Amino acid sequence: MTATLQEITHDNTSRTLETEKGVLHYHEAGDGPPLLLLHGSGPGVSGWSNYQGNLPTFAKHFRTLILDFPGFGKSYSCDQNPMLAALPAVLDFLEGMGLDSVPVVGNSMGGSIAARLAAGHPERVKRLVTIGGVGTPVYSPSPPEGIKLLVQFVEDPTRERLVAWMESMVYDPAILTDEFVESRWKTASDPAALSDVRKLFNSATLAAMRGRNGAAVVNQIENLTKIQAPTLITFGRDDRVTPLDSSLMPMRLIPNCELHVFHNCGHWAMIERKAEFENIVLAYLLRDVER
């Protein structure tokens, strides 16, 4: 049963889907055409932590589905790098839920996975919206500050290092309330969660980013040209994880692409610029619904 708009909580939107690889956890609220939200990566991150504030707004117009990637939230843990497990999990989720073409919104890692889904499986993505996560920096140094601080945390997981990483994710640290930080710390310090995030972020990750693997960049560029879905890429002007200049290549190479930049905003636009984010993204997604 789908949660009504008056009842949206973590528990009454919580759902599971059995797959051959394990249980995928997701949240569901609202009626209407389906909408898939994909979260970012990092300590204590889940679909709920990324999008809980946006779910009531999107649920007014869509059957909104927020998936936890393998290695995050309450989905199954994975032996491999969670980034490698994410796209197959999304395909398993769409198949298991009986969904064909859906609009997809992805933050950071979720934006990267959504873009790969749109490039490799164009029949699955009706519209694509990304919040950072696509492109590669043209002018900014690599690895960026936010990734360095993230690796520092996973190698020595203290509350102080978590706060330092969280501060790099936003423009205004005032939004990092004690409750917000404590919620992330409780999840991020769990040994199982730490084990999964260490498979994704470690010293080898930093070394690879410093090397700017040419073949990986070429592959990314090729994928961008394959995206046929109407696409809205959004960035925080002050993003210290995926810098704004990362938007230049996708803006040029994705055939049907628009760009929106949130001023005074870091990596978490859906949290830090909540109202503007919801207005911009809903207007874009509803172009199909209102036709």
Automatic annotation (TrEMBL):
This is Alpha/beta fold hydrolase. SUPFAM superfamilies: alpha/beta-Hydrolases (SSF53474). The keyword Hydrolase applies. GO terms for molecular function: hydrolase activity. InterPro entries: AB_hydrolase_1, AB_hydrolase_fold, Epox_hydrolase-like. Residues 33-273 form the AB hydrolase-1 domain. Keywords: Hydrolase. It comes from Rhodococcus baikonurensis.
